[in-house]
Specification:
Number of domains: 2
Radius of gyration: 20 Å
Helix content: 40-55%
CATH architecture of the largest domain: 3-Layer(aba) Sandwich
Distance between the termini: 26 Å
Bound molecules: 3-isopropylmalic acid, magnesium ion
Order of helices and strands: EHEHHEHEHEEEHEHEHEHEEHHH
Shape: globular
CATH topology of the largest domain: Isopropylmalate Dehydrogenase
Strand content: 15-25%
Number of strands: 12
């Protein structure tokens, strides 16, 4: 049997640095667990624009469609601010999500014990936190038509459209219910049914799918603004949150800070099953390209490493190996090994990106 295939797209900013650490982890699994991957690498975002004049080439898109899973670092940077909208680094990422039809974006927010003190919220509010945001990723206002900026009389008007079909809502709801069954069996659906028709439909369809197929799961509904407030007031009331593309973007950044640092959060973007039974999949950290610290060896590679753990679990059915990697990260943090983003005033010296990667690999070896 041939090895499973991976396409690595480091992208921009800290993307390349954090991905180098993931490569160490992948190599460790090959050397120590006989888990080998066929790895290809390509450009995305500003890096692709610099080389090819486009944020994603057709050739790279084709590779992404052909592999078992894509690992992406980050896209974007101030250098590209003045580019035409269609050439911006973010368009490369959005094209991957759309053309691979990665409709379910899983964003776990887990608070590691060693970091509970570090959240901007009180320790007892976040200690032990383990929630999962399921964000719809291929529709809504990110892609709805009409869109654009046009002239009306003497002034310009900017238009975007929030649009959801029943089937788009139903399929992401199913992903959320399925996940809940493997966790604490609770789903909270968030929209703005009080002001948006698309929100009314969202609530109706989630309710229908629940009644027809998942009545064993506990379902609640919340307006997304209240959801934002509840996330910082009492986040442990949630298990799985399911929400649309834009609310999910915003709520997941808020959830990220509950855990202490944006540098800790992985994500999986999953689509329909391919012929080999694996879902179409792209794994990426929730953090961005952090141009302010890029190239300085300061970035925290944990979110990207944990994204690979999600790949092991969701694409390759290697749940035990994923857990081994997550526990190695937990051990490293418990030992006080921290990058700059995880430091408190009285802490010792931060480690570099590559020292963090080495520490994770050492912890993996110690786990054997
Ligand atoms: C995210 C990011 C992206 C988004 C950007 C980079 C296009 O913020 O993945 O959360 O808005 O979806
Ligand atoms: Mg975002």
């Amino acid at each position: 049997m041939s090895n499973p295939s991976l396409l690595i797209l480091p992208g921009d900013g800290i993307g390349a640095e954090v991905m180098a650490e993931v490569r160490k982890v992948i190599a460790w699994f090959g050397e120590n667990q006989g888990l080998n991957f066929d790895i290809d690498e390509d450009l995305v975002g500003g890096a692709s624009y610099d080389a090819h004049g486009t944020p994603l080439t057709d050739a790279a898109m084709e590779k992404a469609q052909g592999v078992d899973a894509v690992l992406l670092g980050a896209v974007g940077g101030p250098k590209y601010d003045d580019l035409d909208f269609s050439l911006k680094p973010e368009r490369g990422l959005l094209r991957l999500r759309k053309e691979m039809d990665l409709f379910a974006n899983l964003r776990p927010a887990q608070c590691f014990d060693a970091l509970a003190d570090f959240s901007s919220l009180k320790k007892d509010v976040v200690a032990g936190l383990d929630i999962m945001i399921v964000r719809e990723l291929t529709s809504g206002v990110y892609f709805g038509e009409p869109r654009g900026i046009h002239k009306e009389g003497n002034e310009r008007v900017g238009v975007n459209t929030q649009r959801y079909t029943e089937s788009e809502i139903a399929r992401v709801a199913r992903s959320a219910f399925e996940l809940a069954r493997r966790r604490n069996n609770k789903v909270c659906s968030m929209e703005k049914a009080n002001v948006m028709e698309s929100g009314i439909l969202w609530r109706d369809v989630v309710t229908e799918v629940h009644a027809a197929e998942y009545s064993d799961v506990e379902l609640s509904h919340m307006y997304a603004d209240n959801g934002a407030m509840q996330l910082v007031r009492a986040p442990k009331q949630f298990d799985v949150i399911v929400t649309d593309n834009l609310f999910g973007d915003i709520l997941s950044d808020a959830a990220a800070m509950l855990t202490g640092s944006l540098g800790m959060l992985p994500s999986a973007s999953l689509g329909s099953q391919m012929a080999n039974g694996r879902p179409k999949a792209l794994y990426e950290p929730v953090h961005g390209s952090a141009p302010d610290i890029a190239g300085q060896g300061k970035a925290n590679p944990i979110a990207c490493v944990l994204s690979f753990a999600m790949a092991l679990r969701y694409s390759f059915d290697k749940g035990d190996e994923a857990t081994r990697l997550e526990q190695a990260v937990e051990k490293v943090l418990a030992d006080g090994v921290k990058t700059g983003d995880l430091m408190q005033d009285d802490d010792a010296q931060p480690v570099s990106t590559s020292q963090m990667g080495d520490a994770i690999v050492e912890a993996l070896t110690a786990s054997l």
